Amino acid sequence: MIVTTSEKPAPLTEERARMLAAELAGRFVPRKDSTLANLRRRYQDDYLLVVTANELRYYEDEGSPLYFHPSMAFVRVKRLRKGEQDPLLAVSGCMPGDRVLDCTAGLASDSIVFAYGVGPAGHVTALESEQLLYTIIREGLQQYITGLNDVDDALRRIEVVQDNHLLYLSKLPDKSVDVVYFDPMFRDPIAASASLRPLRGLANHQALAKQAVTEAVRVARKSVVLKEMASSGEFERLGFERQRYGNAKTAYGVIRI
Known about the structure:
11 helices
């Protein structure tokens, strides 16, 4: 993977790109006046991470880049700010002051909703097993500015950890968090937008193991929640009670403790 910068970067941006290249075992290449297409051809590498002053952009081939953005999480949090209810917080029983473990962070959308829901007195840990995704969300949560101070504070409070969720759960004491959440890559995915296609290439595609659910039940004080396609057989296989909301294509499964 090539790690480069935007055009005419500030010295701090170039230094950050060098550090990230070392962290990700990538090749740092100064941008100079080269286009991304020229860098691909010159170094015969289709994978690029572009470091700008404000974000990381990951490219595969000629497709749209993957980058951190709150996306629908921001819409959901703005509804919470108006006093509306969020289905995930409702089904999990999550309350201010709770401790939440998001075992499959992805781009951290649900972690953001949880972080706003638990408030400053609570805590959210977001696990991501894949190195590049971990780096993108870690940097994004620290740098992204929504324009709403309380939402920015929620992003900054999320603790991002790179680890396999089963290994992480196995090391936790009994009843040590309130909510454990799983949102694995769907067995039968919804047709994804071009901007999310690189996410499927980077993410962990392993099916959720029954052992992970057993560990989650041991660790949780309130609930264990699974997000899947509404028609998925994963809820039955893993012992979750299916909860549907409206006409959504996805559903939540819950195990109440």
